[in-house]
Amino acid sequence: MARLTRLTTAAAVLLALMAAGANIAQGQGILVNIEPTAHVRLPRPIIIVPPHPRPTPPQPPASYKIKELDVQATIVEQVAKVQVSQSFVNTGSQQMEVAFMFPLPYDGAIDQLTLLVDGKEFAARLLPKDEARKIYEQIVRKNRDPALLEWMGTGMFQTSVFPVPPGAERKVSLRYTQLCRKDQGLTDFLFPLSTAKYTSHAIEKVNIRLSIDSSVDIKNVYSPTHSVDVKREGRHATVSYASQNSVPTSDFRLFYDVEAGKVGASVLSYRPATDQDGYFLLLASPQIKGDADRAAKTVLFVLDRSGSMSGKKIEQAKGALKFVLNNLREGDLFNIITYDSEVQSFRPELQRFNEQTRGEALGYVEGIYAGGSTNISGALAAGFKQLVDSHRPNYMLFLTDGLPTAGETNEMKIVANAKSANQVRARVVAFGVGYDLNSRLLDKLVRENFGQSEYVRPDEDIEARVSRLFSRIESPVLTDVSIRFSVDSQKTEDGQPVNRIYPKDVFDLFAGEQLVLVGRYKKPGTAKVVVTGKVGSEQQSFDFPAELAEQSSDATNAFIEKLWAMRRVGEIIDEMDLKGKNEELVKELVELATRHGIMTPYTSFLADETTQLHALAKNSDEAAVRLRQLSVSEGQLGVAQRRAKGELQRAESATVATPLASEAGRGGGRYAGASFRDAADKVVVVENVRNIGEKCFYKRGDQWVDSTISDELAKKARHVKQFSDDYFRLAEKHGKNLSQYLALDERVLVNLAGEACLIEP
Q1: For labelling, which of 1, 168, 515, 656 has a CA lying 20 to 30 Å from the CA of 677?
Q2: In the prediction, which pLDDT does 105 show?
């Protein structure tokens, strides 16, 4: 192979030939038609938007779906060996003669490609960029379907033809070896799931499993696109992702780095323009070699046993407490405080964990029963009184399902008293159970006490939620962590080199967990990152090199800006929730929501087609009205708002995962629209807001409008006819930076480097 091209679309693409003629092609991802008289477009999943079911439209004669997609990959020292299996079903009424085609989204290295169809090997031919572009363009022109433009300007593999009778299923298996890119020490693995979005139905099962091996300890493993499960052990890591009845809307991307030492850190940056702040992402993970690396800790479980906790809730809470007790370590200190109108404890003071005290504590848990009022203030005071050693990490797991009805009941005084009593910087993790509680009280409590709040809905398992969170924090390695940047080009009089960093408070690093920190920077250049924290009681510092981009040449790392914006929106809402509304904060909230399509109950009106996107004053007034909901601290509305806010503050994926349509009250599948939780704590999918690449588009009338286009710029828009020579010249000139937006099947108003361009059918 004279020229190696890097594979990024292992979600392989079928070209299939309709049985209407031996020369008509169609298949997974694209429809190709070489017969002069036939025109076939790509399949799309049927989307039923109204809440009431409608009759399902009949399938066309030539139609197919992807039933299952399974990806198994092994990455060793930057080389990925990937095996992909896809099951395709002919859902139409005619036999399809299909060929398998494989677009390559960007250059790189791929070899050893093998293709099997139901166990029979097929030869694959590599087509270089120019030849592939001509084929793509011919298909788009012929079928008047812009979807293939997403891959124009890249190479492809193509195979010979095989039949798929009506109703039949074919399993296609693909094996290849790929050299992964590396940037700033991070190995970048990309699997383009979005090729699988062209299917007539949602995919029943998507499964991805990556095994990473290294000669040096693996530190950070991070996906900016999907919520993955990561299991790490020294020089090996396993990453998995699974979904059911879904339609992929974004590619799968994974970063990992390797480094010797106590802490590993890597920094990626993105700067869209030289006259704007840049954005950075810092990943940091501690090294774990055994229990000696894990700091001894103090864990205090404070459990609400009031009358409202009776029945199933108290039993689940007791199960959670047993889980915590069974997962403490030798050297840990602990105690249990229970409260209703009275406050009691397992022992008068902290106990050293061992088999004897564990057994005695489990016996105490068995005797806990529910009944009485809710003395929150008294329980907190009793807990903080026992926490006196600031040289070890202290955690208070505080669980309640009700309002303060005994002792001090004033929200502000409860928080002030707790803050004053917390002399050891104990982290308070509050679990609010159900809807009959004061959610703002819990949020204020954890904000003043270095922790976070978790909300357990009535239909959720308390034990599972508490156990999952405690499993993450059970092994602190580096505590009281702070991050400092120094940039070579930054002078003292220029102020701080970075700003608006999230998370912004001092935090801990735990075994098996990693820090995902985002922020903005003013000046580009070579930088040094200093991570400071305690290993046990000893203060230690670690420094790492970083390179902050002067201007990013493409949108490869644009997800960093989106992730920062999501966390900033959560922080803005939190500020107004706990400290009151502020006109400047409302304005910033609307600007960020508009630019990035971040839907919340307070900004969802932006999706209304009658809303003028850049009428900032008017839209800020509307948001201010809706923000009055924050005055509600109790009930379902109160909890829903704080839960949604917390999800934004702790977001780790730049892609807002649109939940299953069944959760959103619709029929089947995941959609590309934005989503948010409403007053009833239900997911609302907004179909006329789309996030594509680095841009957000809003449906306005019969066209999609780029959020960065002002009304003045829109008036000067250049008109380009879809499928014209000018249209394809644009796609060829701007590459994927533009072609992914041209792939929309309707009128598109897009900003191209400061010029508005209107693509018209």
Answers
A1: 515
A2: 55
Is the distance from CB of 627 to CB of 8 less than 8 angstroms? no
- Alpha carbons 576 and 579: distance in angstroms, whole number: 5
C-beta of residue 397 within 8 angstroms of C-beta of residue 465: no
Domain with CATH 2.60.40.3680 in the chain: 13-48+57-258
Residues 549, 555, 556, 561, CA torsion sign: positive
Which tens digits make up the pLDDT trace of 245-257?
888 878 889 999 9
Query: What is the average pLDDT value for the chain, to the nearest integer?
Result: 83
CATH number of 263-291+477-548: 2.60.40.1230
| CATH 3.10.20.880 matches 13-48+57-258 | no
Given a contact cutoff of 8 angstroms between Cβ atoms, the answer to whether 306 and 568 are in contact is: no
**Position with higher pLDDT, 162 vs 374:** 374
pLDDT, one tens digit per residue, over 609-640 is 999 999 999 999 999 999 999 999 999 999 99
Q: Which amino acid is at 688?
A: N
Residue-level pLDDT at 87: 85
| Residue 108 vs residue 39, higher pLDDT | 39
pLDDT higher than threshold 90 for residue 560: yes
The one-letter amino acid at 753: A
Per the structure block, which two tokens stand in for 428? 């308070």
Q: Which long-range contacts (CB under 8 A, 24 or more apart) does 644-647 make?
A: 644/600, 644/601, 644/676, 644/677, 645/443, 645/570, 645/573, 645/574, 645/577, 646/443, 646/452, 646/453, 646/454, 646/455, 646/570, 647/570
Strands 156-164 and 96-103: antiparallel
Q: What is the CATH number of domain 295-474?
A: 3.40.50.410
Please name which of 527, 504, 528 lies closest in space to residue 517, comparing C-alpha atoms. Answer: 504
User: End-to-end alpha-carbon separation of the chain, Å?
Assistant: 40
Q: What are phi and psi of 376, to 5 degrees?
A: -65, -45
Supply the pLDDT for residue 327.
92
Q: Are 374 and 400 in contact (CB under 8 A)?
A: yes
Distance of alpha carbon 478 from alpha carbon 294, whole angstroms: 9
DSSP class per residue in 373-408? ---HHHHHHHHHHH---TTS-EEEEEEESS---SS-
- Among candidates 271, 265, 333, which has minimal Cα distance to 299? 333
Task: Pinpoint the residues of the chain covered by CATH 3.40.50.410.
Answer: 295-474
Copy the structure tokens of residue 753: 């480097």
Give me the pLDDT at residue 249, please: 77
